[in-house]
Task: inverse folding
């Protein structure tokens, strides 16, 4: 089943302990789409400026990603400049220039309005609302939270959260949104706001999933070297939603496996700057690390529980 | 099989966001023994002052813990005063008074020297060395690191690490010991120092296990309320080593299950101040949470890997 992702396409400047890259491809929609395409057809709804380079556009279309929903406007593509601390769970935004995104309102194509799977990358809740008003009867809506909007448009945010099936947020955002420092309390508090499932992303510490059926906890895949964590969250969402769309069933069981697939693809994304590793990634590599991930987290308990 | 634990018995003063307790039972050996006893006989090697209260001594003996190796000396029992940050992974030591421990050299009883399972709670590496010189041919030696000794007696520490089968340390200690910020690199660097297995404890984020056979990652059991994290590491070690001693085999498979049991017992320890929760804990409660833990971490992958 086809997935529609609404989010940024941008040019990023990124600084980590491992170096600096300038004017590289970025934006949540690009990470999401490059991850989801391994599992399911995916189409992007976004906007770029007339400086967006043809080879970057082709990078998506060459990989089967539907770009009909990407509008080109006069002006500059969105720019983001981020700098990571030595502890890569922390980063500062040096500069964000929305450029063509300023005042832009995304509209879905007729076939996108009938899509079953909708991913709303971090954005203004009013835009999320506007997208949800356009889709007829989606099977699954996933939205990612961005802390900026918690402070500025709380009411709008709460309206969107009610309409979402799976809410994604970081541990810091979960705390900010609920006022609960304890993540179990925070997760349950967000559940009470409407979504059937809440996924709290803890960076290198993995993911906590909350639903009516209970909790699921997975570590992140431990890497010897993280080059650039940018886009890890959107990549995770892409792998996860991709698996769910391919499987066609959304329940506690498929969700758990989806979280592992999301974690696997995200673990590749951070191995190089920008989209580089995702561009060359193969299904075989995903499948290999998926198996390694299962072995990594296998407690061999079955031998000891006999009752 | 019987376990010998060498470590502190102390009176603690502890401050957390949830309150303050004064002059309560503490010390690594007490947490370890109260956890290990559910799985295996355990005897403590330690020292207390003549202020150590009879009802506290009886708390151990009533639960079948062998106290013959605990020496009573004239003077005060060791005192520790700690204060936790709101982020309970961080704490400050307000005061540590070694008292009777000052200059004390632990000696094992004849039957303890033949023990198969030895746990060395955080202490001076020279004392660890002295204990290891007394045991004839232990099957398994586990030692826990204490960051203080990384700076002060590095050479002695490295000698002990060579003689240990399983090395336990916190993430911060692993980084300090190896100079590697990345935990995968740090874990492998400690492995190269001698022990067959390295367990890096990440507090509320769980445990990373490194061995020649590979990596194992488990989250901590997510709790709605952590009252007092004191002793969580020693409780974890007690549950883990207890399971290994009861099972009698030490291999990658039993180690993984042991880590889960350790995590389960530790998750109870932090639910109340001091040893309170461990004193009343039952095997049924451990078994229930063990099953909940397995469900918590089950990715339901078996349905999707068919090849």
Result:
């Amino acid at each position: 089943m086809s997935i529609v992702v609404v989010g940024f396409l941008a040019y990023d400047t990124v600084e980590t302990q491992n170096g600096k890259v300038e004017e590289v491809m970025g934006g949540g929609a690009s990470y999401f789409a490059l991850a989801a395409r391994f599992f399911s057809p995916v189409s992007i709804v976004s906007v770029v400026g007339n400086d967006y380079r043809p080879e970057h556009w082709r990078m998506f279309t060459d990989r089967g990603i539907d770009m009909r929903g990407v509008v080109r406007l006069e002006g500059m593509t969105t720019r983001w400049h981020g700098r990571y601390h030595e502890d890569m769970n922390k980063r500062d935004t040096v500069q964000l220039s929305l450029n063509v995104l300023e005042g832009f309102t995304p509209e879905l194509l007729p076939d996108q309005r009938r899509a079953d799977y909708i991913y709303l990358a971090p954005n203004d809740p009013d835009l999320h609302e506007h997208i949800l008003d356009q889709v007829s009867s989606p099977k699954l809506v996933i939205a990612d939270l961005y802390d900026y909007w918690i402070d500025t448009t709380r009411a709008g945010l709460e309206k969107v959260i009610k309409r979402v099936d799976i809410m994604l947020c970081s541990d810091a955002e979960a705390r900010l949104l609920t006022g609960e420092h304890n993540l179990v309390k925070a997760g349950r508090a967000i559940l009470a706001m409407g979504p059937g499932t809440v996924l709290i992303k803890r960076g290198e510490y993995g993911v906590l999933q909350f639903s009516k059926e209970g909790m699921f906890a997975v570590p992140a895949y431990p890497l010897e070297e993280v080059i650039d964590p940018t886009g890890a969250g959107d990549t995770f969402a892409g792998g996860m939603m991709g698996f769910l769309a391919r499987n066609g069933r959304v329940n506690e069981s498929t969700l758990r496996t989806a979280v592992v697939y999301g974690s696997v693809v995200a673990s590749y994304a951070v191995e190089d700057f920008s989209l580089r590793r995702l561009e060359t990634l193969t299904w075989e590599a995903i499948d290999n690390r998926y198996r390694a991930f299962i072995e990594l987290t296998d407690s061999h308990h079955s031998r000891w529980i006999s009752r």
Q: What stands out?
A: Residues 143 and 178 of chain B are 17 Å apart (CA to CA). The longest helix of chain B spans residues 252-269. Chain B touches chain A at residues 86, 181-185, 202, 205-206, 208, 214-219, 222-226, 252-254, 256-257, 259-260, 290-291, 294-301, 303-305 (CB under 8 Å).
